[in-house]
């Protein structure tokens, strides 16, 4: 490889811009047996020809000769076909701007340009040449970074985003010295080839970039979460759903109302569906970390699982070890993960370095109100306009890679993802000044507008600045003080409902008796068929009303026995009125919660509006 890199650098030094530099004629070609490549097929964007390429005296390998002429062969020793470097470079940049444009599409385009039929082996040949091209580019980049003194293992992390990590002399400190977002995404899944009965090909190549956390680094935290009972919830259809996510480290406080537990809001699929999904994919997605300016910092594979606790724990370990104290991390389940991190082996480090967890602004609005007051960026001092949703911006672009990586090998999947991340970060670096300028203008405009509006509100309501902070504290204290109703209260509410049902069944029984007594009214004397039918209908109605009355009586008696009530409550009495009002208020709160859930669900659906490759029903597969 070093000789190919040298040949490539020599080629680039002679290149005048068209991809085919002039050949050095000062040195005569050697004999054909000394390195000449005869009758090789050369493929360019618009030219396809056979030619004989003469080697230079210092060339030892066929691909040195090919690179000298501007091509890369599809075989290391006896190449019969070579693809021009500028064609490979053009595909690399086209794939950069359109990730769904894959090698197969490029090969078909070349076949159409050269008027030849497409064959699957052409894609394999192009893949080999493109892999060598990227390997050469990687070694050139390594040489350049070493010459510039940028070859330290953590240099990229310390310098990826200059706005986040470059410190000026006497620069004022911010509330948070660094801010990252972490999240998982299951679009970049890769099929497990063993499902087809095909043994995966051996490929010893590994990822080249410093984006990836290794499986060993991640698995160090696989046993961090204490074992617990599998959580169960009952969905709307009455089915019991088991959840096996391991980032919940402890059971919820029994005194905290269910409405204040955020876990169930992020159960995106039932356990059986997820297990089926994970079983068919070797890598079920990626987990990434980004800075507040949306530069990708780290990534790792999720192996046959969902967002287990080990993935964010490994990310946090690397981030706090690299960036140090006074940081912040946004995660869509940051409220629950904070407890996980504090109970793990990282707990002491997290507390010592004062790492602040929070929930992203977009996902945070789906959490309950108490959670928002503690974890939403809107209520955290020092967050400003940072929404903590940088990963979502990254995923909106990386999802385009799904088609080309779903059936790729492990190496080629990593290669495509890290190439995409490198291009993404380069684009973000180019747009960084505009990003900061636009957000600065937006922030100053917001300050001017809201300051004027706030002055009017304070004048009208006779408020001071301290009142707003006090309102937040009081609201948080009020919601925290709310406790789950005693177990007997729901039973008493149910008892009032049973009394209402019993009263209704009594009225139905009385109406059935009255209807039975008058069943023969209006029927002519001697019309035996009509009389028989009327008596049967009256009897059936009477039997049904009596059975329902008995059931209601048994239910009311059962609840009365459970509650230990000596004498049955009277409808309209003080106890009945109290718990009847409590039941109505509970139904009202449930309706509000359902309305909030539907609104948030609709917002998620609208986020897919007008996006390609989405249907009316968004499924997990």
Automatic annotation (TrEMBL):
Domain of life: Eukaryota
Protein name: CxC1-like cysteine cluster associated with KDZ transposases domain-containing protein
Organism for this UniProt entry: Boletus edulis BED1
InterPro entries cross-referenced by the UniProt entry: KDZ
